Amino acid sequence: MLTQSCPIPCDPLDHSLRGCSRPWDFTASLSKMKVTLSALDIHESSFTPLVIIELAQDVKEETKEWLKNRIITKKKDGGAQLLFRPLLNKYEKETLENQNLYLVGASKIRLLLGAEAVGLVKECNDNTMRAFTYGTRHNFKDFDDDNDDFLSMAERQFIIKHELENLRARDEKMIPGYPQAKLYPGKSLLRRLLTSGIVAQVFPLHDNEALKKLEDAWYTRFTLKFQPIDRIRGYFGETIALYFGFLEYFTFALIPMAIIGLPYYLFAWEDYDKYVIFASFNLIWSTVILEVWKRGCASMTYRWGTLVMKRKFEEPRPGYHGVLGINAVTGREEPLYPSYKRQLRIYLVSLPFVCLCLYFSLFVMMIYFDMEAWALGLHEDSGSEWTSILLYVPSIIYAIVIEVMNRLYRYAAEFLTSWENHRLESAYQNHLILKVLVFNFLNCFASLFYIAFVLRDMKLLRQSLATLLITSQILNQIVESLLPYWLQKKHHVRVKKKVEALKADIDATLYEQVVLEKEMGTYLGTFDDYLELFLQFGYVSLFSCVYPLAAAFAVLNNLTEVNSDALKMCRVFKRPFSEPSASIGVWQLAFETMSVISVVTNCALIGMSPQVNALFPESKTDLILIVVAVEHTLLALKFILAFAIPDKPRHIQMKLARLEFESLEALKQQQMKLTAENLKEECREGGKEKAP
């Protein structure tokens, strides 16, 4: 990152803490930590900025001063004890625009204490993973008082975000200068400032030097190689690193399917029996790759420390509202909203709306079939080369309409889920994912199921599947990466011209970087990226015996997807805050559900083949019973495989068990110590009573 900062001097009290390195000396460590935290310098004028806060243009001066004081005030007085200054000084404000941008940072010792507060897990010198504590910092690998790289920049920015979000109202009833922005004790100030529009945005800065090195190792050279997942994790955090790790793993897992599918594609479609082996392999493959991914994911997240991080108690999400009351669990004052009202909103409004959207999707699908019939009739009448090309036009138009409908429905689903007023972010995400997955599944695959099981036109099914798959992949590449990158480049040129026109005596390097990044789009998370892979997995697995070439197209798409997504993360969007993750979450269940559905569809398709039907010319009931029996057998095999393959490798299981054992032993020792102290106190009290 290009800044005009100087290294932050080490706190003089830091040296007095170096003797506190024994893991059992917790009390002494804690007391010294408190002394050190209260002695931190909060008035350093030059520091490395990590996070940018942009205020609205018309924010009052008293509000700015109040916010500054709350950020720099000591922790014991209710502040965040961070470093804070405006981007521009008084002279620069007269020359430049964007006067409401502020830089936030922290001293090294403050970041280390923050790492303990958020529960970061680091590798110890004995190769075990343990929660970092400041008192035992010298027990951790690569820690040195002169080493500023012990915490990655993503971790430092995550700590800053945590401290800002945990700035809470104390005695204030409102935000100074804004009587309509009500506060109550314990309310997150940053969340209230954001929802009130006083703070426009908060985002972490890119480190241009580290970013350039990451780009060189990641995507600037178009060569087939493994991604630098650990470096991606160090720069963007675990959530994004897990997505790119899963994308890479899924791409390599598709290669066997692509290789096996190519010769099958060359066979005549009438030879259904040739596809039985391929479909059976697909069903086993879809189970094995998901189970093996769990093991690889566990190894990665253990190495990163997130697998053993303790879950924090979830705070109410920013958009949650209700009547102020006392939370029965935490005892804190917070908005309370009756669950029956939420259920009424879900079942009386959200559910009917989703059903209406599904009906509209089916209505559009029937229009598509009318277009297909029109194009087919036109081709049969003329038989020209032009009309043969026209046969693909309805599928292409329908694929574009599907993408548009998916994106419009996404906005509606977000609005509805927010309106349902879920208290926790996890509940909000689960309801949003459920709404989006149901609609996207029906919208993308309903036409294929209709062609396969109602029309029973396998030639049209193959054509539609190929067109939908290829068109959706091209559209996603353009809309998600190429178009935003082109717009960002145009904005970059405008900013550079504006900066070059400034007076020569102003060094606007940092100013240029901040202004450029604040205008970038905000990365909304990995939801859309996982959704794209989920739909791709459906195209590959649901109808594998119809279009074996789907896996080959998916591999080709994903090879470019890695680079386009990397470009998107590095050059199109603002740098997102790091979010610790131990897995891909609910998407694992979504992929497993899709693999179960694929068993049913492939068995049904094979059962409809002429060769299989010829074996049962007299009774279709016997055919149905045999197909159902085979389907149940394959499902049983899937579940046996899922049970037989452990989710975590043996060595990870042993390390986690060891950590749990040590935690229980430490808790037992602490309880014994407290019991001994209580007995001593009772003995002293008893001695006093017996004394004359």
Main traits of this protein?
mainly alpha; 10 strands; 6% strand; Anoctamin_TM; transmembrane; membrane; Anoctamin
For the largest beta-sheet, the strand count, sense and barrel status come to: 4 strands, antiparallel
- The average pLDDT value, as a whole number, equals 81
Rg calc = 30 Å
Number of strands: 10
| Structural shape | globular
- The unreliable regions are 1-42
Strand content range: 5-15%
Structural class: mainly alpha
Question: What is the helix content?
Answer: 55-70%
Tally of helical segments? 22
> What is the end-to-end distance?
74 Å
Strand order of the largest sheet: 2-3-1-8
Q: What features would you describe in this structure?
A:
- It contains 22 helices and ten strands.
- It has 692 residues and is mainly α.
- The chain has a four-stranded antiparallel beta sheet.
- β4 (121-123) and β5 (129-131) form a beta hairpin.
- α13 packs antiparallel against α14 (425-455), α14 runs parallel beside α17 (527-542) and α19 (586-607) packs antiparallel against α21.
- It is globular and about 95 Å long.
- The N and C termini lie far apart (74 Å).
- Pfam families: Anoctamin (PF04547).
